[in-house]
Amino acid sequence: MYTEIVKIIEGGLANDSKKVQSYAKLLANNLANSGDEKLANKILKVLKSIKGMPVYKDELFTAPVDNESRLNIANIITPPEIELNVQFSNALNNSIQEFINTIEAKNELKKLGLEVHSSLLLYGPPGCGKTTIAQYISKKLDLPLITARFDSLISSLLGSTSKNIRKLFDYADGRPCILFLDEFDAIGKARNDSHELGELKRVINSLLQNIDDFTQNNILIAATNHEDILDKAVWRRFEKVIEIKKPNSKEILDLVDLLLKDINTDVKDDQKKLAVLSHELENLSHSDIKKIIRTAMTKSVINKQTTTSFESLLFETYLHKNNSIYELEEVVKYLYEHNVSQSAITNIFNISIRQVRNILNP
Ligand SMILES: Nc1ncnc2c1ncn2[C@@H]1O[C@H](COP(=O)(O)OP(=O)(O)OP(=O)(O)O)[C@@H](O)[C@H]1O
Ligand SMILES: [Mg+2]
């Protein structure tokens, strides 16, 4: 019986659910034979309950590893693990939906003789939702997202890089999933870098040629912040290209609305405050805006305040834009000019109303 237990542990550690299941069954049989019906039934009950496991929980989905270091060369997220709280503009939503619709209609389109390539390139500044969109598509299509950071893949141990790239594509080719290549601009660097090993260059060029074949039967999403590094040959490989931008003023309002939804704050129901805050958040990324709101919220919890106030959100925005460096005089003036009352300013900085007035009317 100890053998079964050891095998089950081995299977669990290797993410080999088939092994775990078959040895658990054997263990249950042996227990029943030796008179421990109760424990045997308990094990059989557990085994029955996992029958309906979705395909991506199958043992097929253990991450591919580098042969030498045994480190994962890709990270796998399954749709149930993805939690999304997103706000896309109509135009972006339509583009994403179009990509999803084409994938869903792939079989029908193929029957009509229409060749469909499922490849999407997302480009734009950091923190504006490229990874989020890849996760959103994975959730919508109910397919696991296999993410490889292309830059680290390429700069990993040189000898194994080309092997790893091949391994990654073969791996993704072998199961229903979405292959997500983050930092895809690394491909441009490697192609143009004269120091790069010839072998690696060849692999990358052949991969580029193979993207066409790969995306006939698989889904590929790539993302980059440095679209200028990618040459025309690379752009051409992608069936769909979406530019991701920083949110415009309407999108900021919607994002702030979404982020404040579950927060106790005086901003939500005050259009004027909402407008001032949103205006101050212009030119920032989704990620910056999220960070500002989270930090203000965290500070209000730490300071035992029941609400995250307009002035604290505005102050946090000021700090973010000024790299957390501030002069009291400057920030007091800033807040006052942005509709924060004198008494609210005294609360934030723990100073007297006289001090505030002295700053405002020296
Ligand atoms: N449309 C959106 N709605 C809500 N939150 C968003 C949206 N886009 C991005 N975010 C949030 O902003 C943060 C950064 O997003 P994400 O990681 O997707 O950006 P990115 O473009 O992949 O950045 P990088 O180029 O640095 O990889 C995340 O916390 C994400 O939840
Ligand atoms: Mg990203």
What Rg is obtained from the alpha carbons, in whole angstroms? 27 Å
Strand content: 5-15%
Task: State the separation between the terminal residues, measured CA to CA.
Answer: 85 Å
Number of extended strands: 6
Q: What is the CATH T-level topology of the largest domain?
A: Rossmann fold
The shape is globular
Strand order of the largest sheet: 1-3-4-5-2-6
User: What is the chain-wise order of helices and strands?
Assistant: HHHEHHEHEHHEHHEHEHHHHHHH
The level 1 CATH classification of the largest domain is Alpha Beta
Query: Largest sheet at a glance?
Result: 6 strands, mixed
Please tally the helical runs, counting DSSP H or I stretches of 4 or more residues.
18
Ligand names: adenosine-5'-triphosphate, magnesium ion
Uncertain regions spanning at least 5 consecutive residues: none
Structural class label = alpha/beta
Mean pLDDT: 87
Name of the CATH superfamily of the largest domain: P-loop containing nucleotide triphosphate hydrolases
Written overview of the protein:
The chain folds into 3 domains: 2-51, no CATH class; 75-243, Rossmann fold; 249-360, no CATH class. The protein is globular and about 85 Å long. A 6-stranded mixed sheet has the order 1-3-4-5-2-6, sandwiched between helices. With 362 residues, it is an alpha/beta fold. It has helices at 2-13, 17-33, 37-49, 90-104, 106-111, 130-141, 150-155, 158-173, 186-192, 198-217, 232-236, 249-260, 271-280, 286-302, 310-321, 328-337, 342-349, 353-360, and strands at 75-77, 118-123, 145-149, 178-182, 219-224, 240-243. Adenosine-5'-triphosphate binds at residues 86-88, 126-132, 225, 255, 286-287, 290.
